[in-house]
Fold:
Amino acid sequence: MQIYNEEEIVKQLSNPSTRRKAFEMIVRNHGEKLYWQIRKMVLSHEDANDLLQNTFLKAWSNIDYFRGEAKLSTWLYKIAINECITFLNHQRNLNNISIDDTDVFLLEKLKGDEYFDGDEAQMKLQQAILTLPEKQRLVFTMKYYDEIKYEDMSEILGTSVGALKASYHHAVKKVEEFLTKDI
Structure:
């Protein structure tokens, strides 16, 4: 099995004869991480799978536009997050929900998701996260679950490090308040 070397992969992507093999390595190397990032945003296994496929389809069809100015992983995260935001906005429209409202439809999907094996505490945490505004939710999940550095988040989301730190701080406070309000 070949070791994943991003510089080498980027070179192979620019060559039509090695492009497909290089892209297969990208999918193998980044697929699981992207799946879990997407899953944290949309909660449903089926939706996450669909959005992961959309992410890779979009990446494949736009591979000529990847100039190597950012890391491949950053570029893929950006595509995945944009796919999630588009999907969530579409779901809100279908459910007639304002962007400022809690995304309760996601929680209902999670409760019905046969692949969710979390306990009551995990369900409560998901409820707390769903009360966050979309941007805070995104920052919270990227930092809390994936431990993504603020600098990398800044590249992915196009937001300053300071704003991301403030967003995460506010998100943590809101989650703590939600989790302790009944105690």
